[in-house]
């Protein structure tokens, strides 16, 4: 498979477990509440849903596509999920992995290790990282752990000596070799009352709390900045 990142087409994709609000989040990031189908009757996405939606911060000559990937666990065949994820990770300039609920640092590291392992299935002729920018998004976050604490645990800090945990050091090395960058975003619950969620099949951006909207705006701004460096990325070749 060949990917030329010097052209004018780039993808922002989202993946993760089913029924975790991926479609809603992508609607918020695309600035269109109706871009992707959202309901509470079961999984919303089969395969990959794709829309074209150019953010105002991105030059008009760049075609930006948002891709909503079928949730993990919707198909009993695990290889189906893996093929969808790998394909979209290869073609995406920005990839969002969406979690919901509370998750500890070790469990976060294990999921990130699974994502980095996809890189072993791909070969590139250049010395660049294999995949684009990765965003780990944690939904309904109530933990005391901050985004900075999670990032420091996963990636270390500039003034930190090597970890005494060999597995963690291997993970950090794999992350650096696999992704252009990794960013952690912790989103609070979207509304202050669970009654609002139970009484609606779709949540719109004008219904969410100020804290949730601010966090989504910050994530959107980061993604827009990453899309702006799209033309600077080099030609890559892949073999599956």
Structural class: alpha/beta
What is the average of the pLDDT values?
78
User: What is the number of E strands?
Assistant: 9
How much helix, percentage-wise, in residues? 25-40%
Sheet of most strands: 6 strands, mixed
How many angstroms separate the termini?
A: 7 Å
* Widest sheet, order of strands: 3-4-2-5-7-8
Order of helices and strands: EEHEEHEHEEHHEHHE
Q: Percent of residues in beta strands? A: 15-25%
Secondary-structure map:
Elements: E1 2-3, E2 9-15, H1 22-30, E3 48-52, E4 63-69, H2 78-91, E5 94-100, H3 105-117, E6 123-124, E7 131-139, H4 147-155, H5 166-178, E8 179-186, H6 194-198, H7 210-228, E9 236-239
Parallel strand pairs: 2-4, 2-5, 5-7, 7-8
Antiparallel strand pairs: 1-9, 3-4, 6-9
Helix pairs in contact: 1-7, 3-5
Give a quick set of tags describing it.
disordered N terminus, three-stranded antiparallel beta sheet, 240 residues, six-stranded mixed beta sheet, globular, 9 strands, alpha/beta, 34% helix
Structural description of this entry:
The protein has about 240 residues and is α/β, with parallel strands linked by helices. About 35% of the residues lie in helices and about 20% in strands. It has 7 helices and 9 strands; from the N terminus they run ββαββαβαββααβααβ. The chain has helices spanning about 20-30, 80-90, 105-115, 145-155, 165-180, 195-200, 210-230; strands at about 1-5, 10-15, 50, 65-70, 95-100, 125, 130-140, 180-185, 235-240. α1 packs across α7. The chain starts with a strand and ends with a strand. Mean pLDDT is about 80; it is low at about 1-5 and about 230-235.
